[in-house]
């Protein structure tokens, strides 16, 4: 898989770094050009060609995409500017996948949003746009996580198999070499959930992907207070609600803003 076109898939039910992979490039001048597709703009019933006026739009994929860019901007200082062209992040409505390319690519930057995608998933995808990898793919994860045996087996046996599960395992679970990391962050928006509806519905083992080690539990206890004011579903490890302090720090540092 060519690193410059590394698509990270987020399946509908699941998931959730302060970590940046070695091959990932930051956005020049800490500015991300974006273009909303006609399809996605239609979901907000707007005449606008970009995010201008988004706060007044009806709840829709376009509204969530613009809100997500605004949230990342407020937390990191990175700017999103509407601009057409090959180098811009193309934001599409996609019936099949909610996904994003990672960091700045010369061409082919995109965010795909499923019509029913929740806000946390979309915020997560824009984290990839800003260069963040999955926290649980850090090379030091074994200090903090115990992967369930079935997942470890997949990692060892998938090889080049092309079935859906192996494609997902290869893209979202191997350890990756990172160029920039914060302390390990179980509270990251970029960490997958430990417990959830099964990521692959036909196999209930996928409802529990890992457990925390003693050090993982200590890291969780230390990071959770930042979410004290959020609703209950967000006050837990690997939440899927908000940009964590370390997520924001990593993006700022990666773009020379820290
Ligand atoms: Zn992801």
Describe it.
With 258 residues, this protein is an alpha/beta fold. It folds into two domains: 3-129, Collagenase (Catalytic Domain), CATH 3.40.390.10; 135-244, no CATH class. It is built from seven helices and ten strands. It has helices spanning 38-42, 61-76, 119-129, 149-157, 164-172, 214-223, 245-254, and strands at residues 7-10, 19-21, 31-36, 79-82, 89-93, 98-101, 110-113, 145-147, 178-181, 210-212. The strands form three sheets. It has a six-stranded mixed sheet. Strands 2-9 form a two-stranded antiparallel sheet. A hairpin with an 8-residue loop joins strand 6 and strand 7 (110-113). The longest helix is centred in the N-terminal third of the chain and has 16 residues, at 61-76. The structure holds zinc ion. Residues 8, 10, 124, 128, 134 line the site of zinc ion (ZN). Zinc ion binds at residues 8, 10, 124, 128, 134. The active site is at residue 125.
CATH class group of the largest domain: Alpha Beta
Gap from first CA to last CA:
32 Å
How is the largest sheet built, in terms of strand order? Answer: 1-6-7-5-3-4
Q: What is the CATH homologous superfamily assignment of the largest domain?
A: Collagenase (Catalytic Domain)
**Count of discrete domains:** 2
The kinds of small molecule bound in this structure are:
zinc ion
Q: Tell me roughly what share of residues is in helical segments.
A: 25-40%
Number of helices: 7
Rg (CA only):
17 Å
- Under the CATH scheme, the architecture of the largest domain is 3-Layer(aba) Sandwich
Which regions contain 5 or more consecutive residues with pLDDT less than 50?
1-17
Portion in beta strands = 15-25%
Q: Biggest β-sheet, characterized?
A: 6 strands, mixed
Q: Which whole number gives the mean pLDDT?
A: 89
From the 3D structure, determine the CATH topology of the largest domain.
Collagenase (Catalytic Domain)
Shape: globular
What is the strand tally? 10
Secondary-structure element pattern, one letter each: EEEHHEEEEHEHHEEHH
Q: SS-based structural class?
A: alpha/beta
